[in-house]
Amino acid sequence: MPSNIIDRKIIDTLARRAAGSGADGGNPRLKEIVHRLTHDLMVAIDELDISMDEFWTGVAYFAAAGKSDELGLIAPGLAVEHFLDLRLDEAERLAGIEGGTQRTIEGPLYVAGAPLAKGEARLDDGSDDGEVLFMEGRVTGPDGKPVAGAIVDVWHANTKGNYSHFDPGQVPFNLRRRIETDADGAYRFRTIMPAGYGCPPGSQSRLLFESLGRHAERPAHIHFFVSAPGYRKLTTQINIEGDEYLHADFAFGTRDGLIPSVTRVAEAAEVHGRGLNAPFALIGFDFTLVPEIEGAVTTEINRPRAAA
After folding, report:
1. Half-sphere exposure (Cβ direction) of 151: Cα atoms closer than 13 Å
2. Is the Cβ–Cβ distance between 81 and 252 less than 8 Å?
């Protein structure tokens, strides 16, 4: 079938009718969005000569991806979640908000309600024989002053790339904690070095990316929400230097300012001082929060998340 065969006026009329533009009632914002997306989809079908078989294959694909709860992987994998971060960065710049720690994607594996600790915590339950990692730092404002009582909400995968709650082999909230900073704005935790993960073998998400000639792997990383009264909530993660996929994350989550150095500590005195009998890894990373500004675009994002 040839492309570009439908008059654009016909497409616009159909899209407006589909969005209820001429009907009373309904949600005006929803009408606006549905009209634009329906219009652009129809234009794409016409311009790209998308066949009926291709269209219904796409519908079946998204139905299957939704059934297996993979849309949370597909959105970052198609760079849409990263694009939303870039757009929020620019909106903040235009509002005069600058100077905080870089944000990056949340991903689909957060679980609300992790146990709260004061100042420091141990994240792992001791069942995973991975490299011990200590991570510590401070939460400050842009002036460098400590933010006491900030909540550092941290979560990451185990050495097999699996997350508790989604992995029935892990106890609830393994490798997940909320840590309240002390009077100096400091936080610290002991955990194990995480591994990266990939979209599950045979999954709809892996099928898509491999069909695009891409891989479906993420580098090792640790997720954070950092929040405090009067400051804008930060959603970010740090990546582990040296990972094979560090600069080739299928989810576009790597940002240059979020790759701290990893120090390997083997001196006996330091090892024993930490209560260990083997070398460990150490990461230092400070978070900078920026004050909330009335009327600025929000960083509190409402999206489907798992709950314990």
Report:
1. 17
2. yes
Maximum C-alpha span of the chain? 77
Q: Tell me the mean pLDDT in the region 177-191.
A: 98
Q: How far apart are CA 90 and CA 94, in angstroms?
A: 6
Helix axes 204-211, 52-67, angle to 10 degrees: 140
Per-residue buried b or exposed e for 217-241, using 16+ beta carbons within 10 Å of the residue's own CB: bbbbbbbbbbbbeebbbbbbbbbbe
Question: Which residues fall within 8 angstroms of residue 111, CB to CB, at 6 or more apart?
Answer: 155, 164, 165, 173, 176, 305, 306, 307, 308
112: three-class secondary structure by DSSP: strand
Structure tokens at 42: 């129809």
What are the strands, taking DSSP E only, across the chain? Answer: 111-112, 116-118, 120-122, 132-140, 151-156, 176-180, 186-192, 221-227, 234-239, 263-265, 280-284, 287-288, 306-307
Rounded Cα gap, residues 255 and 159, in angstroms: 23
d(CA 90, CA 88): 5
Residue 4 CB coordination number (10 Å): 11
Q: Which pair of tokens denotes residue 104?
A: 């990056």
Rounded to whole angstroms, the Cα distance separating 80 from 238 reads 20
CA distance 160 to 165: 14
Give all strands of the β-sheet with 176-180 in edge-to-edge order.
116-118, 176-180, 151-156, 221-227, 234-239
* pLDDT cut 70: percent of the chain above it: 100
Tell me: pLDDT of 306 over 90: no
Sign of the Cα torsion 152, 83, 15, 45 reads: negative
What is the pLDDT, as a whole number, of residue 22?
Answer: 85
DSSP assignment string, 152-204: EEEEE--TTS--BTTBTTS-TTTTEEEEE--TTSEEEEEEE-----BPPTT-H
Mean pLDDT score across all residues of the chain:
97
Collapsing DSSP to helix, strand or coil, 74 comes out as: helix
